[in-house]
Amino acid sequence: MSSEQENNNPTPKPGDMGAIPRPGGYDHFVLVADEGKVIHATSDTTASGSVIKKEPLEKVAAGGNFKVKNQDDKKIPLPVDTILSQANARVGEKVDYGPLTYNCETVASEMRYGKGQGHSEQAEKFKQSAAEKGESFLSHAKDTHNHFEGN
Length: 151
Hints:
4 helices, N-acyltransferase activity, seven-stranded mixed sheet
């Protein structure tokens, strides 16, 4: 695991959101806690669904690059002590996970910005891409149909 130290990627601090690239082109989002640990929504091996866990960043990153990825911060984050106390209180909580509705990014942003402030830019981009591909497919199908119908 490496924590990228570029100009645009500061050293992670408690209360920051972070992203770890995963195979398949998506990022797994976490909230930086303390003592090298992160809090995140992940699958629960003991039951169906997902659970919020606090685990070492090294384990969660599994050799991948970690980037600080706070959402634009146009929203004001909660105070760090509030972020951490509320996030720690959620450890062990079962969550109704949905990749396009309530995912790891939503959970991390909710912990950083407050209940009801959860947002997933990743899901929005996926939905936008799917909509564009659908429109492109429909346009192509219409053109093909018109070509064969002689229109």
